[in-house]
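Morning run. Coffee first, then this:
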Amino acid sequence: MTLFWTMAAGGLMGLGAYLLIRVFYHPKPGVASLVARIDAGQKSMRTSVLTDLEKAGDQATTWWQQIFEQVSDALESWAAERGWTLGGVGKDLAIMSQSVGGFLATSVFTGLFLFVLAPILWGLTQLFGVGLPGAIPVLVAMLLGLLGLAIPYLSLKQEAAKRRKDFRKVVGIFLDLVAMNLSGGRGLPEALLAAASVSEHWALVRVRQALANARLLGVSPWEALGELGEAIGVEELTDLAGALGLAANDGAKIRASLTARAETLRAKELSEVEGKEGERSQSMLLAQMLLSGGFLLFLAFPAVGQLMEL
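And here it is:
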């Protein structure tokens, strides 16, 4: 058994060394890598105006926050140099308004913390006289390190799913507002911007920022909405952009299309709510049946016991 754990630990360490070499190996940069490097360079050139409260908050940052920010910036630039887009994780980060570097830094620090936790626990077991083979702490450290890397990813997926669902609800309301503005005689760009300006909800703020950037860059509003939907992984927004692009010159057709899409989204949301309520009802019914069965068993147990004695 000791030989098995030793071989398993050696295999894991060899796999980790191989992956580490692959990560730090500098490949020949391709087109995607060069474009990502240019995008990463634009981040450092952006200017921002800080309020006095934000400046005070920046001055009050702890040494841990400064280290985290430095590691985050280094990892983000490092990932951009290799052209890492992170796929679905990038969309989850976009809808959560989180940076790639912050996510990578959180994963690294969480993995390192759990990796170091294993030798500490092994040392405590040695103090209490519990003998364990030397390969077990290494294996546990590897598993805890992998778990630490996975925890931020799982948390991000869960929070992004909730936020994306909230965004879909706002899209339905946004469609109704745009149709109302079109009925009032406004043009499509003005109707989109007016509908996105009625509230300070985070989803409408993202839509309003996309529309404002479209005006500055000289692109159509529906193209900006399509890019936003693609970036955050909301298909409803991407489909809306395509429909607006096809019917941009026909106001009546746009109003009918937006109204129909809003009704479809509401019907879909209602069906999802009814489905969840049905699942909860089934769960409650199962719990009631188990309680009733246990109560009947409690009542019948003395009588059954007496019959068995006879």
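The radius of gyration is 28 Å. Good start to the day.
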